[in-house]
Fold each of these.
Amino acid sequence: MSDQYVKVQVEQMKSFGEDAEKEGVDTEEQVPGSSPSASVSPDHPTGTDASSTSLPCKQTGKSRSKPGREDKRHTSDVASQGSVVSSEKNLNRLGYERTLQVKGTGKILQRKSEPNGNYVTIHTSKNIEEMRREEGFKLAKKRRPVTVDTSKAKTSLEALKISIKQLKWKEFPLGRRTACDIYWHGVSFHDNENIVSGQVNKFPGMIEMLRKINLSRAVRTMQELFPEEYDFYPRSWILPEEYQQFTTQIHMVKEKDATVNPTFIVKPDGGSQGDGIYLIRDPSDLKLMTGSQAKQGVVQEYIQKPLLIDKLKFDIRLYVLIKSLEPLEIYIAKEGLTRFCTELYQEPSQKNLSHVFMHLTNYSLNVHSGNFVHSDSQSTGSKRTLSSVLYRLAAKGVDIKRVWSDIIALVIKTVIAVVPELRVYYQADIPPGKPGPTCFQILGFDILLMKNLKPVLLEVNSNPSMRIEHEQEVAPGVFEYVPSPVDEEVKVGVIRDTLRLMDPGHKKPTVPQQRAGGFEQGEEIPMEEETQEKSQDETGTLPSLCLKQVYPKYSKQFNYLRLVERIAALFIRFLGVKGNMRLGPTAFRTFIRTCKLSGSNFTMASVDILYIDITRRWSGATPDSREAGMGLQAFVEAFFYLAARRFKSLALREQVVSLLELCESQLGPQSGVEERRSLSCSRALPRTVKTQTPCLANPQLSSPAPLRRAASQDYRHQRFKPRSLRANVEN
């Protein structure tokens, strides 16, 4: 057949393309007679061959030829090469190509109208499998490689370069005039102010939100509402603001029991890599001033009974990806790092408080110890993989699934605590309707395991080190960077698979989530054996993803915690001006009036006094604020006060939920949250709520009052009562 040249006569071809489109017809042509039957295969790619075959075809606009009517619909005349069969003039209007698959031959026929409109020539093409293979190659070539701007990557550059090379993407180390798909920043969202599209690996406001003071405040708010769920964070006092409270409580504890002598760790607010951290046992040892300025920071209870391996204290560096805020998506790296101290651990005493290599696990500190061991093995040395430590614990009979489940819960709860403020920052930098990039970010969670295997959150790093080499002294006083196999194994996988998840060519539909605060509490994370995460790799050369989705996968167990996000949604709704982060007095009055919270017992004059009182005190607590007005944390305090005033007989959590439902019902479906709450307060929230904060070691110590007293004359008779928040945890 491939050696024949056949010309086709067509009886009727009136506007075939238009009719077929209008009727949605799947046409099929058949070649009867001596030639093999051929069925139309529009999905196959067109192609030509040196040899050609012509078949006379009578084409109609109807879907398929019925048995017994082929003589009316098709006329076949196989002629010798060069023979001509006339065609109707209306073929002139056709101007399209069709393909025929010849059954039983593995060939593709292609038909194209001749320039004069009188003939149709059908060419046989290559084998079907060959065509499909070639088409696959063409598609692979056609797909534009993902572009990554690495000009601001800083210390993560080497791991990023390796990841881009493994993915066969295109790197722009000096930036690019036209837009890139992904921008990798080394410090903050604002490393490049001129991005209006694509994706950036930093969220606006993340650095500010994860400073020691702001993180402590966010967790403290959650401890008020959910004291038992947030007992993984040590009690903290904010300096210098709460210095007097801290001093008073320590003296009271010592007067009550002279044998109690707790240890505290002091951390500067913006410190990193262990800089400025020290231990104290008495408030008089606090270093509150730097020259004439007060030092901003936190003082936390020190965990005196950590889990030890080889008699050394260690912590876990876990990498967490926040893929998006709306909807909230959280991934945890299946592999992490463990950083070991370099001096054998002893419980703190006045003699060893200054031994940083014994008490502080920071790599940047211990690497300067003479006992630090650089090892190419993942299970030895001063820096090891998390899996090697878990394997060693499992060999001793530790329930690793339980430990991992607790760590996942800690991560999700911490992210839920900081998300409300992040949403405010996000809408300020990228308001709805304004061109701008989408964001994602890798965070570094520093977690300590206590002797009873309970995980404790030490801090969250907005810019965890992704360096895959370390300093090594090659000669006295001469250092150079050499590869670190342990770092490369973990960090390259985290960056590479983060890029794979953010690949714009593999965007998956977002998973619908239940609205915040809409589930019952108390369910445990199922930790059954899970199937391997499917790779999004087309070539099959990359391993399965090392990042495990934990939210919204486990949203059912944690959505009830997202109450403050609902308060933030109300706050954002009344901000008014795009890019603003603080409520003015008029906006606050509008909130009160719209939600119908004022009345004869709570006049608008009282509303103004409340606004002034709370705003003034929070302005003093955040002296670096560049905007005037009521920020989110101050608004949350005001909201708690309004809830306590309106629903006096309920516990705090139920008060907040009741006021939220009242406000959302007044505002209607556009209150900034997607779905209406389906569970009632009494069903979702137990009435027996302990209003105590976590206590990791000394139950006598209570946390500073989360709500401040109103100073105005109108509120003296019902001042904000400081709540003593405690929860006992065994060491």
Amino acid sequence: IEGTFPMAHRVALRAQHPRSIWLMVLPMLLTVLLVAVWAEGQDYYELLGVSREATTKEIRRAFKQLALTMHPDKNPGDPSAHEKFLQVNRAYEVLKDEDLRKKYDKYGEKGLDEQQDGRYESWNYYRYDFGIYDDDLEIITLDSGDFEAAVNSGEIWFINFYFPRCSHCHQLAPTWRDFAKEMDGVIRIGAVNCGDNNHLCRRKGINSYPSLYIYRSGQRPEKFNGERNRDNLVRFSMQFITTTITQLWQGNVFSEIESAFSSGLGWLITFCSDSGGNTCAQSAFFFVTCFVQSKLAHHRWLISFTFGNKNSASNEYKKLQAFLRNDHIQVGRVDCIADSELCQSLYIHKPCMAVFKGLGIHDFEIHHGKDVLYNIVGFARDSVRAFVTTLGPDNFPSDRKEPWLVDFFAPWCPPCRALLPELRKASIQLAGQMKFGTLDCTIHHNLCSRYNIQAYPTTVIFNGSSVHEYEGHHSADGILEFIQDLVNPSVLILDPSSFTEKIKGKTYEGQIWAVDFYAPWCGPCQALMPEWRRMARLLSGQILVGSVDCQRFQSFCQSQSVRAYPEIRLYPGNSRQSYNGWHRDAHSLRTWALSFLPRASVDLTPETFRSLVLSGRDHWVLDFYAPWCGPCQHFAPEFEVLARMLKGEVRAGKVDCQAHYQTCQLAGITAYPTVRLYPYLGKKRSGEHINSRDANVIADTVRQRLQQLLPRLHNKPKVSAG
């Protein structure tokens, strides 16, 4: 137990309290050790009491139940309650986050960042504030992942933006629930927890709670500003409901009804007397689309696959044809009991919605999102424009020459569902260059086992005989960057032999290498990978970039004194520099690496400024800066990049405005950093301000300006050496 304390503390404790201190500390230490042993024996799913297929909503519900019983506030006599609840809270924080959950599923706890702040909310928070509307069926809780799809679905949404600790939000809750029940089936009632979705609420301009807004696709949101009671909410909502009333008579009744049916629209007909009296009768007619199998191969269809129960699709499905009419998507239904051969050939074994894209019976995509109208409409519109195909044993691209991106997934996995719309976006960007497919591992176990799929989603690029597993952000941009890097690798994969050859025995003087020593299971390493590739592209032509897999070459990494992952090093000349910065984004790493390149600009004094810049015969671009200025420090390596880009065309110089204040004042400098161009025109000159801090933009601006001035330059000056 003594060994858990630093040596200095041990000596102090022994000197001050040789016996009594240990009698006090020992029970606490034993409690911590016992809880650690208890937690280590269970995985996060077991701690929360949920299956590995649990949805985010199920995980939230399970955690809330545990929070109400295990919270230290409810167990004041249990010295281990704090540590136990910390473990449960940690499990919840990991499993509710899509990226962390994937890392945990694939690598266990060792794939996660070890840091955790040890904080949690009070028992009252979990009892009264933890998701006010989570259990309400009529109120749909939206988050950042599905908000845009909902409000742009074509339906009308009335959304309550609330904050869990807001007393007015809690006062509104009973009214909002009653209102939602009354408006069920008329408009959509939603809620956004701004405590969990702070960025979304800020992006939507929410600055007070509760804020109530009506959303209509393609139109500005309308804010409710009245007294928050049910009648006012209903009146406000109904002004946005529009209907079309058609007068039917003997001459048009059949043509109007048939025309509507052919467009997928139903009718609600009120039969009234000539005198305008009470309604005599009401009846509703709903359109049911029928089709034959051949149509699936030549037309775009949204198909509801059912298993015997004709009423299994909700009444909302009857609105689908109206919503999708302008997208030229037809809507139909297949009973897989009556047409079992078709469903078996498509590997459809349970009710689902699927889009057929009109390019063949096997070119379709299954919907795995929420089973609500707005989500299905959004999926159908996106799917027909994208190039993602549902794969099976018959069309899996194992031996095809063209490149394929295959997403191995499970429908119950939240990160998998979040990735699917990003795949559609990427497939549009790469149309004609790469094909995209998804494989459901809950159906095709053997195929997934053949490729050693251990976690979901796992995204793999098949390019002939080459197979590459994607590691990076679950976004279209991340996928595009990864594929771009496969075509033109910016990071060189190093082994002990190539490391020794290229870095220890550099081919020419002045060559600088940046190297990432990593382990595939390491969570921070995985987070760094896309940033490392992005940094490599930003440094192209200036610094060489490589990476070493320390799981594969463990002995070699130990010989290089690599003790933790990721270890980022720079090798300028014969030295070695380690990165100790807090931020590991591409731009921070680039700034650090560029600071080790030799200077391409020169420092100017008042004398050299007058003689070389104002009176000399060269073009100059200058950086006026102050050493204490943060933006100046950030811009400094960018200016060196600019100096190297313009070498031979324009000279680059820097003026320290703290040391040479009067020079900067005479030049009219009022802010730092300031970039100015001083072109040589054969006479005394003044600087021209360039409003950019990007080397490429500044270089283009300088060249364009010199091109404009070319007629005035009798003899193009040659840049002098030095």
Amino acid sequence: MALRHLGKKGIQASFKRGFGFSSLSNLSSNGELPQKLTSIRYFHASRKTLAKRKDDPDRPLSHRERKKQSVKTKAKFSKRDKKTDKPPAEAPYIPPRLQKVETGMAEKTVEVFEGMTLVEFSKRTGESLAVLQSILDDVGETVSSEFDAISIDVAELLAMEIGNNVERQHTTEGSQILPRPPVVTVMGHVDHGKTSLLDALRNTSVAAREAGGITQHVGAFVVGMPESGTSITFLDTPGHAAFSEMRARGAAVTDIVVLVVAADDGVMPQTLEAIAHARSANVPIVVAINKCDKTGANPERVKNQLAAEGIEIEDIGGNVQVVEVSAVKSTGLDKLEEALLLEAVDMDLKARVDGPAQAYVVEARLDKGRGPLATIIVKAGTLVSGHHVVIGCQWGKIRAIRDMVGKPTEKATPAMPVEIDGLKGLPMAGDDVVVVESEKRAKMLSEGRTRKYERDRLLKADEARIAELEKREAESEDGFDRVELPVIVKSDVQGTAQAVSDALRTLNSPQVFVNIVQSGVGAVSMSDLARAQACKACIVAFNVKGCKISPAHASVKVFHHRVIYHLLEDIGNLIVEKAPGVSELEVAGEAEVLGIFKVLGKRREEDGVSIAGCKVMDGRVFRSGLMRVLRSGEVLFEGSCASLKREKQDVEQVGKGNECGLVMGDWNDFRVGDVIQCLERVVRKPKFISSESGAVRIEC
């Protein structure tokens, strides 16, 4: 028997580790247990040993335990929670947030030129030849080989169809290059004498015929210099703060910027903006200090202000010429002419004369008898009557070319401003003029640009709508109640309509959102009135005539204006009128406690009432207001007024300097010297603020 040969020490070790038959088989020849046991089977063990075995994490699982564990993991045998009779918790509904539209990769600009091959175009755009060939088949163009040359119009169409922007490159090889007149843009602050200076140069009186005495359009003129006999093309830009885009377009097409600063006014906000536009366009500046004939003129102060803004004038060793002039007395004009011609000679201005023309739209308007008209400046080439052109998304065949005096001409050479008609629609100010070879090519290019323009417009509209909804959600969380003011803008020219729309958008406030429903050129028509009535909008007619308003459209508000100041003032007042306002508590009056009178209750003393004998020190105290008790500047209580009497009579309010008795509903602990404030709830409307520079804003 193994138990008989088991020593006392071995038995103690066996019971210490847990007794079992497997333990006996692991005994050594000398009766001792080995140091490591592979497994121990517990047949007869104490409760303490079984508990230790159960808590051992390294022990192997039994067959029954493994079976139970596998059953728990199965879905159909899983234990379900018991149903309770409690109703589900009511959680507030939170609408899902709108996700931003994925615009994909940023559009890249592809440079195209005449005679490039399809293979080279594929390398520049990264598009496969098969895709480009399918696009050419869809538009009706045939290319026999990928190494054949394609025209610049077809290359632009391909780039637009695959979603890329286009930059046309024109070569001057084999072309006739000749000197051209400089294009000079006159910029500066409003009412600093820009148009008067141009009138003095060309002996006209345009400034006297302008509405309000300020320029509100971009004008292009050719002025012959009397001293040298040469000609200079001038662009006159508005100086009001609302016409920032017009000044930017003028700086983009110009060669030299004439910065007009009034000697009696100095550097103003639009002067600084004109300097920024000239620097961004990388064009030289010639400073003309005007109104030097006035008594308060100080040209030296103007020079110091310009130097402080980083303009390196010649007096301090810079290269910016400064000329002191007077448009009223026509003094200093010869020096200004000399400075402009000297700057043009240093720039060595030349342009290609032959070949298709490249031009830039300065302004566009709609004439009742002639249709859409565009004022353009030719940059290179020669524009001839009868050419097919594409301007932005519009196309047409030029029927007539007129100079800025209105005289018909057959062609337009570089740096020459002209007005063309024959377009199918009204282009946008700032569009490039592209001459194509046929009407078919013009239609094809116009349709491709229209498709791309619509895609870009819809993407921008979605992004703007999501941004506006997020802004409204944030404002609604802050407690703002925002209303919408729909507006239809009609103007005489395209650039002014865009400027008026941008100026109205600057009047947006946390309480009123100005929504430009439509912006167009031409007189107010019946369709405009019908649309305004349908969307409950007002119509802003700037420098245009209005039609007769029928009784059916009598509810539509139409604002006719010729001066931008008056227009912004009227719309600002309308915004203030429509604004819901912000409800606030305001101190209507203050009263000081001079004495305390206690009225005992019928049953207990605690049921008594304390009457505060007060004197109104400021404002008025009325019974319906909210009362606030202050002691040593600390608010002790806020509540309603239970009774207000003067000379034993109930009154609704007590004015300044009068005495009264006041009882508050839940407050009896009055002391002499306490201050009682009477608060009233008022609706605070926003304010329309206009600065001296012409900038306007709505302050809430």
